[in-house]
């Protein structure tokens, strides 16, 4: 039998619930390695184990709700808007790239590139405005943080 | 009568032009620093201590106290305008403050926050003058069992933060508690869930987590559907209407009471009174379902609670030498650098300085509200910047803020990871605030329980045999049962309609 619209809407909740249960089981497995109780009371593993059991229970309940359809869940559309997800992925990739390059390239060059990419993602082809703003957000902010407040920001291999 | 005379003497000194100038400078610099990413009141106050080198003790403390106030208001600005809390205590303001900004009502939100904070600060300073000593004696009766019970009461509030689903609010709360378990165990010092990563030994810092869950997630959600204008280009009003002020009056009063009492207990932190105030407003409201959609009560109460807490936290510092919060600890350091040892002898050994500082706290409050109300149009004009530019700068400032916390890209990674988690939570309609609340309270609760059991030799009855802790636990249980019943009855009513 093909899945109904309602089943498709609840699938994200089923997936989320399953991830929560797996996460809880992983935590429980690690917790068991820590001391659960001692003469002075609960050990380091006491709280995490109880919490992981509770989290698994809550995740299981959510899975049951999503599967049985007894409780109305909000409709979540996780597929079908590929352009949106491409944009989100591009933003995250830019941020991740900035994080990885920050120490190597230094604050000024990394943030110059980051702002150029981010602003072009949402308003492409405005090169003059984008460049000026990116310069202010990178070289200008560096001057404020390092020059005025004396907060150290990374300087990369090129001296920026 | 003697107290009144001493206070008047303090005002006479604090109102000298030079001291007023220090207070004004402190408020301006503090607000600017509070707006900058990653620099909350703690870092801002610590960072600007060198500005006071070379000053006499009184002007030095006056300026630092003004910086403290200004930085807190700066955190409110970023919470309301761009959904990025400068510190954990401002996270709750994001809920309705940012929703108001999206409706073109950022001005009223900021004005009510400033006015509410002014009222709360005024009441708290009056409390500092009149009832500091007896209230501090009561607060000192809080040992680990009472502290544990108070935190359990705080955690029971999670049910009040549930939006459409109690189950999902509880899941968020337990997730926050699990996140809080990462790092060195608070009692025996064993590493937990660190997986050999050195940076995890200190656990997750709340600020990058909050920045991710609120700031980054917001941008990702807005990225769906193309580069649209998120904020209205015209703002309905920059100042609150009479109705706004009327709606905010009681939340401000209640928030002030909550913040003041919690501020007397050292170590609780500013998150508890703000959440307590928010949940209280939601519970007393006739339209609790509208909270989170731009209710002015959701801004007025927590902001008042935050400011009342900040002032009341100075009471244990002045009377007992106990810093009630990280920022107050920084102020304590500044006191000591100026040869003033906070504690019972401060009022007798240096009455002139102490009463000048107390008077200047009030003056700082006045300056902040006088300074910021006319500046609201300027702050709100930030939202007129095209969203394509604003969102890029919010993201950049989030990265910068997370990095400057510890000078580490690890915190940036944490923020990005929680940004994705926050985005998924938004899609699944799971509230993020319980995660922040339990993440902060979890380690405190664990430590208090384990210390309590250490005191009793592992006997849990210590929690129920001491009057204050038994009462607090009883209130927590009652609150949990009542709110759960209320939640299920309202859900049933909705499904019947």
Description:
The complex is a heterodimer of chains A (160) and B (497). Chain A is mostly helical and 160 residues long. Chain A is 71% helix and 2% strand. A two-stranded antiparallel sheet of chain A has the order 1-2. In chain A, β1 and β2 form a beta hairpin. A two-stranded antiparallel sheet of chain B has the order 1-2. Chain B has 497 residues and is an all-alpha fold. The chains are: A mainly alpha (160), B mainly alpha (497). Chains A and B meet through α1, β2, α2, α3 and α4 of A and α9, α10, α18, α19 and α20 of B.
Name the features.
heterodimer, A: 160 residues, mainly alpha, two-stranded antiparallel ribbon, 5 helices, B: 497 residues, 22 helices, 2 strands, 72% helix
The helix/strand order of chain A is: HEEHHHH
Helix content of chain B: over 70%
Task: State the helical fraction of chain A.
Answer: over 70%
Largest interface: A-B, 61 and 62 residues
Q: How large is the share of residues in beta strands of chain B?
A: under 5%
Give the uncertain stretches of chain A in residue-range form.
none
Give the overall pLDDT of chain A as a whole number.
86
- Backbone CA Rg of chain B: 22 Å
Q: What class, by secondary structure content of chain B?
A: mainly alpha
Strand content of chain A: under 5%
Instruction: Give me the oligomer status.
Output: heterodimer
Output the strand order for the largest sheet of chain B: 1-2
Number of strands of chain B: 2
Radius of gyration based on Cα positions of chain A: 24 Å
List the helices and strands and how they pair.
The complex is a heterodimer of chains A (160) and B (497).
Chain A: H1 5-32, E1 37-38, E2 41-42, H2 46-68, H3 82-105, H4 107-122, H5 127-148
Helix pairs in contact in A: 1-2, 3-4, 4-5
Chain B: H1 2-14, H2 17-35, H3 41-47, H4 57-82, H5 91-102, H6 106-130, H7 132-139, H8 144-156, H9 166-180, E1 183-184, E2 191-192, H10 206-223, H11 242-263, H12 271-284, H13 297-312, H14 314-320, H15 326-337, H16 346-349, H17 351-380, H18 387-406, H19 409-427, H20 433-456, H21 462-465, H22 467-496
Helix pairs in contact in B: 1-17, 2-4, 2-17, 3-4, 3-15, 4-5, 4-6, 4-15, 4-17, 5-6, 5-13, 6-11, 6-13, 6-17, 8-20, 8-22, 9-20, 10-18, 10-19, 11-12, 11-13, 12-13, 18-19
């Amino acid at each position: 039998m093909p899945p109904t619209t309602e089943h498709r809407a609840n699938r994200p909740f089923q997936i989320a619930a399953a991830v929560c249960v797996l996460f809880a089981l992983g935590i429980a497995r690690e917790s068991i390695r820590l001391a659960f109780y001692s003469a002075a009371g609960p050990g380091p593993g006491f709280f995490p184990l109880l919490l992981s059991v509770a989290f698994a229970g809550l995740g299981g309940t959510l899975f049951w709700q999503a599967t049985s359809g007894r409780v109305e869940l909000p409709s979540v559309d996780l597929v079908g808007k590929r352009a949106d997800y491409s944009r989100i992925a591009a933003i995250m990739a830019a941020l991740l790239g900035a994080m990885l390059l920050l120490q190597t390239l230094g604050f000024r060059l990394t943030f110059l590139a980051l702002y150029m990419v981010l602003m072009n993602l949402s308003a492409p082809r405005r090169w003059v405005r984008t460049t000026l703003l990116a310069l202010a957000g990178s070289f200008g902010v560096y001057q404020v943080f390092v020059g005025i407040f004396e907060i150290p920001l990374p300087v990369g291999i090129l001296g920026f | 009568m003697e107290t009144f005379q001493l206070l008047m003497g303090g005002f006479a000194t604090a109102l000298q032009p030079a001291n007023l100038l220090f207070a004004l400078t402190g408020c301006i610099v503090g607000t600017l620093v509070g707006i900058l990413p990653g620099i909350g009141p703690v870092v801002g106050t610590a960072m600007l201590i060198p500005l006071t080198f070379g000053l006499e003790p009184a002007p030095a403390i006056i300026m630092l106290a003004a910086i403290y106030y200004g930085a807190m208001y700066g955190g409110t600005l970023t919470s309301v305008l761009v959904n990025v809390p400068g510190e954990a205590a401002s996270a709750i303001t994001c809920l309705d403050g940012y929703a108001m900004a999206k409706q073109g009502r950022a001005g009223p939100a900021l004005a009510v926050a400033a006015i509410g904070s002014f009222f709360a600060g005024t009441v708290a300073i009056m409390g500092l003058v009149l009832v500091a000593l007896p209230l501090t004696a009561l607060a000192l009766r809080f040992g680990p069992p009472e502290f544990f019970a108070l935190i359990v009461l705080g955690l029971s509030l999670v049910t009040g933060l549930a939006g459409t689903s109690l189950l999902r609010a509880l899941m968020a709360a337990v997730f926050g508690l699990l996140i809080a378990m990462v790092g060195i165990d608070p009692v025996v010092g064993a590493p937990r869930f660190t997986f050999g990563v050195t940076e995890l030994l200190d656990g997750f810092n709340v600020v990058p987590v909050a920045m991710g869950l609120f700031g980054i997630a917001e941008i990702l959600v807005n990225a769906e559907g193309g580069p649209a204008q998120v904020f209205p280009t015209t703002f309905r009003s920059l100042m609150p209407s009479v109705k706004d002020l009327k709606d905010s009056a009681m939340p401000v009063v209640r928030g002030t009471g909550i913040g003041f009492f919690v501020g007397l207990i050292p170590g609780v932190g500013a998150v508890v009174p703000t959440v307590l105030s928010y949940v209280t407003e939601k519970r007393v409201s006739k339209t609790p379902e509208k909270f989170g959609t731009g209710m002015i009560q959701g801004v007025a109460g927590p902001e008042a609670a935050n400011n009342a807490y900040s002032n009341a936290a100075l009471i244990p510092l002045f009377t007992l030498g106990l810093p009630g919060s990280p920022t107050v600890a920084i102020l304590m350091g500044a006191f000591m650098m100026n040869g003033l040892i906070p504690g019972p002898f401060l009022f007798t050994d240096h009455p002139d300085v102490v009463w000048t500082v107390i008077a200047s706290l009030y003056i700082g409050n006045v300056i902040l509200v006088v300074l910021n109300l006319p500046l609201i149009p300027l702050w709100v004009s930030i939202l007129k910047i095209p969203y394509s530019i604003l969102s890029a700068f919010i993201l950049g400032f989030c990265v910068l803020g997370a990095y400057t916390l510890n000078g580490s890209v690890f915190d940036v990674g944490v923020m990005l990871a929680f940004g994705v988690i926050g985005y998924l939570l938004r899609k699944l309609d799971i509230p993020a605030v319980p995660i922040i609340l339990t993440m902060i309270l979890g380690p405190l609760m664990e430590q208090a329980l384990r210390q309590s059991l250490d005191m009793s030799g592992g006997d849990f009855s210590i929690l129920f045999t001491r009057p204050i802790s038994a009462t607090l636990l009883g209130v927590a249980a009652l609150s949990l049962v009542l709110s759960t019943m209320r939640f299920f009855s309202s859900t049933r009513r909705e499904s019947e309609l």
